Amino acid sequence: MAGSQVRRHVAAILWPSFLMAGVLEALVFALVDPAQLHWLGGGPLEWPAQAIYTGAFFVFWVVVAVSGLMTRLLEGSPEDINREGFSGAFRR
């Protein structure tokens, strides 16, 4: 597969997931105050608000990107995937 095709497929997954991470960030932090967050063990999360916003954005971006990647893999032709492996899912 040509390099420009790979970049196009990567951009087709990363760009929409970037936009949706921004939407998720706005929705979550419209309802949640970062100063009130706690670790799973119960202790307060003593990070600056900016660090919480940034970390949450990247977590949202990765989760949505993995979702897009999994969708693309499941959408791939079984013959191409069996013949070429992971890259066969991006044949079309």
User: Would you count the extended β strands for me?
Assistant: 0
Helicity range of the residues?
A: 55-70%
Helix run count: 3
Q: State the end-to-end CA separation.
A: 10 Å
Number of domains: 1
The percentage of residues in β strands lies in under 5%
Principal-axes shape call: elongated
Q: What Rg is obtained from the alpha carbons, in whole angstroms? A: 18 Å
Largest sheet descriptor: none
Rounded mean pLDDT is 86
List keywords for this structure.
92 residues; mainly alpha
Nutshell version of this structure?
The chain is an all-alpha fold and 92 residues long.
Describe the protein in words:
The protein has one domain. The chain has 92 residues and is an all-alpha fold. It contains three helices and no strands. It is 68% helix and 0% strand.
Helices and strands, with pairings:
Layout: H1 3-31, H2 49-75, H3 78-84
